[in-house]
């Protein structure tokens, strides 16, 4: 109980300290998350200046790729009845390059410089560089676009519609880490939810109010570890639909099917055996997000594979997140759970309550404080030797 009290005190201290860390706004006008700009005092009207033709240098600069990125770094503390740890962390360092190949063809390259996936660190256990995205998108029309290369798959909100730079919490739910970013057959380790292939997508039924009523994604991918050739002849199929009846609310469902080769890699050993093990994944959810009010999202995910009438993979995950956009602050609470019905004695079987707050100092800087309480029962409790654990995270995210 004393340990819990100390953690809650640290959590509250982080919330109180965050606004004091920055006293000035280097960007001038404050841009809230709603995308609106603070009003300026009226300016006396003047005759418009004559348009000046672009110089050759200005034309060159206008056509150069746009460079952006972000750093997420801070402090992480975990504790249970058997052990505890405290460490400063560099969770993510992303570098993005966006450019135009032609009038309707865009290109994106994204590099992760703090990749800590098991088996992919160097000989000293240090994080290394990993290619995240490398794709081109041909925007034929709003209703039909084609994407080729290595891209994020449309499995759920958090893997497709949200990035670490826009996530309300420090970490994603296990729907991302275990279902969207992991293949139990191919490598059985947490990856980034990327794959090599081709995807067709579009927005149809324009509402005339700044959004479309329907978005679709249909992807054909290798179904193997990213940045590598496929290990068999079978391909993954993704079908995803997002229906948005009103501006701030939508419902999404994604189904994935594939056949996989069991492998043993340095980072993790795949389950089962053989080259064509079938597996299905799906994620369904609903999301209401008013940038000046309520943010409410829920998702459920399921992953299953049966071989010779036996469950080789059978996992479920769910979460409900609620928050409120309150000026520069976004306080949130989230309940999430995960259940591995094949490997029941691991820490992946839990219920968790998370409370946190994001403070957006200005457009490119935010601080996040998250406190999570994990609860274990049944086989997981027996195998771990404890029934709960705590986590406290204080992170800053710096964008450019």
UniProtKB/TrEMBL annotation:
Is Signal given among the entry's keywords? Answer: yes
Q: Does the keyword Signal apply?
A: yes
Q: Which InterPro entries match?
A: Porin_dom_sf, Porin_O/P
| SUPFAM superfamilies with a match to the protein in the record | Porins
Question: Gene3D superfamilies, alphabetically?
Answer: Porin
Give a Pfam family name: Porin_O_P
- Region forming the signal peptide: 1-24
Q: What keywords would UniProt list here?
A: Signal
What is this protein's record name?
A: Phosphate-selective porin O and P
**According to the entry, what is the taxonomic lineage of the organism?**
Bacteria, Pseudomonadati, Bacteroidota, Bacteroidia, Bacteroidales
